[in-house]
Design brief:
single chain; alpha+beta; Ribosomal Protein S5, domain 2; four-stranded antiparallel β-sheet
């Protein structure tokens, strides 16, 4: 390969380790060692089983949360390990597929594997797994790509369905522990500043629809708002039209600060009504505001993080007992090269030997038990290459970091009157766009005119 096409040492080293890891997982009974600068990054003994190899590559805690997969039909056999629904990653980098012990890329295997988790995972999360398929070589075409990494099956649908059915059956045989119900805490004045109580263990609600009807306060027309979950937040449609209307009125003095998309809320004496334990209803003079409590509190946590980590001068909380976790060998160099990025996010890390690292201090807004998962999320994103816009790296990282904030309100949490008032007060302080850090809308508006038209009171 020509040197000009090679990337940095860390990136190329990651590619090399990835190749060795895949062959080590596919060939039990063969020992593998990988050294870099006289440092052993991978050392897998000959007698190690598949689970042992996963433990050496991804860590012991990961291996413990994986389920044995075994099954087949019509001469095709699937075996390996798959993560429980609680063991997920932000990218598909921890999904390894093999056909007759050869590492491959197969869309039918990948889609079938993820279809087995349908309804079990939150949006944007992907399962982990090492799946090996044994099949008659006559049923596989390996000559569709120069590197022989991509394969095509004679019956793609049958392979997809086989992967889905076998994995789902094995997952259904494993009973997840049921956590005790959360006891709501007593109300207090600082219920949302920004961590009100311990988060429940239930999974987050599914992502909101990408199209939401919003109504500008300046007029009574509605517009469909399409949100791009990958692009993050952006200004809501209608703002440009409102700004153009303002420029046509020279007698009105324009403010240099962003103008709210929704007109200012009147003071409400009572707490907003909560429905479905997910949405808050705030009636106003001639409209009804519907607020997503989870999206709003994520945005409040994000704003709190921005303020706390401003200029890297934040109140760090030294941990009496450091939290130790492991990363894959291919990510060790990547993590060591980006320790400064985690420090900017309010997470101080140190090497603990081998593939292990320890969290020694965190920003007081974080839940320390969620920090290792945050680190793995960021590493997965960094491994994708030029993921972050260099000018907005900090904001992108903090959007990921909101997942580790203490006690974010979830859909399904029943809130006290004081907590609902606290959320509404927090909304009043926000500037547009009114979206969560990941781009989902916080609020929609239903006007009196819309309701009257729906009930055919007016034409």
């Amino acid at each position: 390969m020509r040197a000009k096409f090679l990337k940095g040492i860390t990136t190329e080293l990651g590619h090399c380790i990835d190749i060795v890891q895949r062959h080590a997982l596919a060939h039990p009974g063969v020992a593998f060692q990988f050294f870099h600068n006289d440092r052993a990054l991978l050392d897998i003994p000959e007698h190690a089983s598949l689970r042992d190899r996963v433990a050496l590559i991804w860590g012991l805690s990961t291996a413990r949360d994986m389920v044995e997969i075994a099954g087949g039909e019509k001469g095709c056999v699937v075996h390996g390990l798959a993560g429980t629904p609680g063991l997920t990653r932000a990218a598909r980098s921890h999904q390894f597929f093999f056909v007759n012990a050869r590492p491959v890329n197969s869309r039918s295997m990948q889609f079938g594997f993820e279809a087995a988790y349908r309804g079990l995972l939150t949006v944007g999360r992907h399962p982990m797994g090492v799946l090996l398929l044994d099949v008659n070589p006559r049923q596989v075409d390996v000559n569709i790509h120069p590197t022989k990494r991509e394969v095509r099956f004679r019956d793609e649908r049958a392979i997809h369905d086989l992967m889905r059915d076998v994995v789902r059956r094995c997952l259904s045989e494993v009973r997840e522990p049921v956590s005790a119900p959360r006891v709501p805490p007593p109300a207090n004045e600082n219920a949302f500043a920004p961590a009100p109580f311990h988060a429940p263990s239930e999974p987050e609600a599914s992502e909101a629809s990408s199209s939401v009807s919003a109504v500008s306060a300046g007029n009574e027309t509605s517009a469909g708002l399409d949100y791009d979950y990958e692009a993050g937040t952006r200004d809501l449609p209608g703002l440009e039209q409102r700004e153009r209307l303002v420029t046509r009125e020279p007698e009105r003095e324009e403010s240099l600060l962003p103008t709210g998309f929704f007109k200012e809320l009147d003071e409400l004496g009572d707490a907003p009504l909560q429905i479905f334990d997910t949405y808050l209803l705030a009636p106003d003079e001639d409209r009804l505001l519907i607020i997503d409590q989870h999206a709003l509190h994520e945005r409040l946590n994000y704003e709190a993080l921005l303020d706390e980590l401003k200029d890297s001068d934040y109140a760090s909380q030294q941990l009496a007992v450091p939290v130790v976790f492991e990363v894959a060998p291919s990510q060790v160099q990547l993590l060591e090269a980006n320790l400064h990025l985690f420090a900017e996010m309010g997470v101080e890390l140190e090497s603990f030997g081998g593939n292990a690292f320890q969290v020694t201090a965190v920003c007081h807004l974080y839940n320390e038990s969620d920090v290792p998962d945050l680190v793995l999320r960021v590493l997965d994103e960094l491994a994708q290459g030029n993921l972050f816009d260099q000018e907005h790296t900090r904001a992108d990282l903090l959007r990921l970091a909101t997942r580790a904030c203490k006690a974010s309100v979830k859909a399904g949490d029943r809130l006290t009157d004081e907590e609902r008032r606290g959320l509404l007060a927090g909304f009043k302080r926000l500037r547009p766009p009114y979206t969560c850090p990941h781009g989902r809308p916080i609020i929609i508006e239903l006007t009196q005119r819309q309701m009257e038209k729906s009930f055919r009171r007016i034409p």
